[in-house]
Amino acid sequence: MSDSEYILELKDITKIFPGVKALNRVQFQLKRGEIHALMGENGAGKSTFIKVITGVHAAEEGHMYLNGEEVHFKGPKDASKAGIAAVYQHPTTYPTLSVAENIFMGHEIIKNGMIQWKEMNRQADELLSKLHANFKSTDEMGALSVAQQQMTEIAKALSTNAKIVILDEPTASLTANESEELYRIVEKLRDDGVSVIFISHRFEDMYRLASRVTVFRDSQYIGTYDVDKITNADLIKAMVGREITDMFPKPDVKIGEEIFKIEGLSRTGFFKNVSLSVHAGEIVGMTGLVGAGRTEVMEAVCGITKPDEGKVFLNGRQLKIKKPSDAMKEGIILLPENRSTQGLILTWGLGRNVTLPIQKKLAKGFFNDIKKENELARDFLEEVDTKAVSIFDPASSLSGGNQQKVVVAKALAQDNMKVIILDEPTKGVDVGAKAEIYAIMGELAKKGYAIIMISSEMPEILGMSDTIYVMCNGRITGCLNREEATQEHILSLSMEHNDKKREAAQ
Amino acid sequence: MEQKSLIKKITGSREALLFCILIVLGIVVTVLNPTFFSPTNIAQIFRNNAIIMIMAVGMFCVMLTAGIDISITSTLAFSGMSIGMLQKHDIVQSTLLMFLIAMVIGCLAGFLNGLIISKGKVAPIICTMGFMYIWRGMAYVVGNSSWASGEDVSQFAKFGKDGTVGPYIILIIVYGLFFVLMKWTKFGRKIYAVGANAEAARVSGINVDNVLISAYTIMGLMAGLAGALSVSIYASAQPNMQYGKEMDVIAACVIGGVSMSGGRGTIVGTFLGALILAIVAKALPLVNVPSIAQNTVKGVIILVVVIVNVVSQRMIDKQNLERREM
Fold it and tell me: Angle, to 10 degrees, between the axis of helix B208-234 and the axis of helix B39-64?
């Protein structure tokens, strides 16, 4: 083994896709046993870069050195043989198979042509206990939470004796506690001598874990910095190429009358006795751990699921909402968390997506008014400033942040909108687009809409909300106003109940 | 340069590509048998395949919603036998009424499919498989071990007999109507939305269950219409009529570029798909392919066309990706 300082080094890597240069002469150096953050906006080329390292894509130009020796990977198998393992944002698992089967997929323990189940389960359990996992090797993968599935993926990486582990946005779908758990595991990996590349949009992740950070922008290498020597502002500037002076442009809006009220809403097994109220111009933040029931409450409000009991009021009038179209008729608009499965039809053009909920209103009798639809779509897409070339571009051609803006335009197009519910509006969205989405929310508040924002991200909850509701285990455990809310306070409210329950169980 | 853009245009549109395939097919057949494209032959092709073509429209709607219906020829047989028996026993003789009765029966059958699939959340292929047996069985039951012969349905057969324009008019109406319906109306947009992403459609306020029920009801309506037409064209009603032809209908749609996973396809494509299949079926005996090998050749042609289709779809997707800003 060579004693080069770097376990992995890439030089002048260029990757060209039809029509685009996804990577333009980028470089990267990973020290032995370090945690190295890789940051940049969506579309900066991070994922492509990871795929070059893991042998999924072959670079057109450039060199890659492993332990000082040049390597050429022909496919993911070569990379995995060389001790490189990647854990992706959305765990690429087999939900119907057991944890052990997932861990050993592709490198099963085989003796005399037979799979050694006992040995595989034993080794899997060993790996899991190393990670302090609270599930067994024989559990079914699909029954696990996202965090647990990610842990399984990490166990899988360990089972191949990986020396370099790449984590692609691992905290994106995790709550604060779960992230903490992940940090612990990653630190343990580092202490065991594994080198880690960590991709994330969250600054907390980087500060908490990484010793160095490399920034990509527009498919190019911008620089590598020591984490304790770079300021937040400098890092953002490196990432977006301009200064963002105010990340949370929360305007001072005079809060008006109560518009929207939920009283004692319950759905067995999901949430119980949820009450909240929203005023004109108010941004209400809803937070809590993933699975606390926030999304479920809003889905019930919007008629996607049926609550067992409880009342919903709009301007003092009780509503009867049985299906999504009822809520929309009343002007309650949901921007769902999952843009690709609930928010947009990705294969359709942007314009079609924007006018889908209102095509009925615009139609002349039996026929669609396509001219009017296109006009409206163009107006609303301009209002949210998507970077699309035309309204006929398919939604799939946009980055996450721009897709989210299209979802906002879709909501704006519904001219009777009174209440707007945003579920994780900036999930998987890069820093630049995040600031723009916050600005749009501020504009909406100014116009006097009642806004509910569900979010797991502490900075945006604290930065944007007038009132913060914290949920835990399907109940609202606290309601804080802007002044009294602190990170610690919110965290304790989202877990307090949990602990009590645990105590009671013991 | 201009030529390049023409190539791009062709590879960029599946209908244009299908049209090219059709022309190439036409040239090959004409070279092998110069008399193939005589007016009578063409009229024959449409008349013999009117039933498949009409049902392909319904199948197109169902497949757009990511579904499938394999009960259609059973529905056809049941509705066809029902009106056949009504004529045999001299209960009804009006041609218009015959069509209406068959279509109502078809609608009900389709509605039941839609209801069970949407509300009962039964997989389309399973649900329609059940009805495939039920309606075929019912066709035998209403016949009570008998069938309606040419004599029984002689009055009704005048509508579809060789040389009349009836079948062609029905074809034109059906395709014209659905071309407009799928392209320019709210309803068409809803079907595409549900097929492309049912969850997003639901959140956008579309009643997905109703759309599914409508799609299967349309399919049933087309099967009923095809049942009546079948009795009229072939001047008989038998319980085993059009047995196994549902696969031809599905093949027509698939060749026409309708995606099995929903949300993708056009009525023009469906028409061209059905036409390609019809020409192949008609041409094979005329260009001296031995009858025992005809099915094999047909299968190969279906696969080739579908593969060309898939490749062209990939090129379209790639062209879209090239526009993506990075």
Answer: 160
From chain B, pick out residues whose CB is under 8 angstroms from the CB of A43.
325-326
Count of structural domains within chain B: 1
Alpha-carbon span A455 to A463, nearest angstrom:
12
Identify whether B1 is part of a domain.
no
Whether residue A277 contacts residue A260, with contact meaning beta carbons closer than 8 Å, is answered with yes
Write out pLDDT tens, residues A359-407: 888 888 888 888 888 888 888 888 887 776 788 888 887 777 788 889 9
A319 DSSP 8-state letter: P
> Residue A16 has what pLDDT?
84
In the prediction, which pLDDT does B5 show?
58
Dihedral of CA atoms A52, A53, A55, A61 in degrees, nearest 10, equals: 50
Inside any domain, residue B188? yes
Q: Does A498 score more than 80 pLDDT?
A: no
Which is nearest to B230 in space by CA: B99, B107, B109?
Answer: B99
Answer yes or no: is pLDDT of A2 > 70.
no
Task: Quote the ipTM score.
Answer: 0.73
Q: Report whether pLDDT(B75) > 50.
A: yes
Could you tell me which of A58, A69, A54, A55 has the C-alpha nearest to residue A22?
A58
Tokens of A197: 């590349």
Whether chain A has a CB inside 8 Å of the CB on B189: the answer is yes
Q: What is the 3-state secondary structure (H, E, C) of A3-50?
A: CCCEEEEEEEEEEEECCEEEEEEEEEEEECCCEEEEECCCCCCHHHHH
> Residue B290 is part of which domain span?
6-325
Which CATH number covers residue B54?
1.10.3470
- Which residue in A485, A25, A81 sits closest to A220, CA to CA? A25
Distance CA B287, CA A163 (A): 65
- The residue among A315 and A360 whose pLDDT is bigger is A315
For residue B290, being part of any structural domain is answered with yes
**Residues of chain B contacting residue A346, judged by C-beta atoms under 8 Å apart:** 196-197
Output the furthest CA–CA distance in chain A (Å, rounded): 76
| pLDDT (mean) for A275-281 | 92
Tokens of A125: 């359990």
Contact A20 B324 (CB under 8 A): yes
Asked if A472 contacts A495 with a C-beta cutoff of 8 angstroms, the reply is: yes
- A21 neighbourhood in chain B, CB within 8 Å: 326
B205 vs A324, A368, A394: nearest CB: A324
Q: What is the bridge-based pairing of β-strands A258-267 and A419-423?
A: unpaired
The secondary structure of residue B250, as a DSSP letter, is: H
- Report if residue B278 sits inside a domain: yes
Half-sphere exposure of B129 (CA within 13 A, CB side): 5
Q: CB contact, 8 Å: B206 with chain A? A: yes
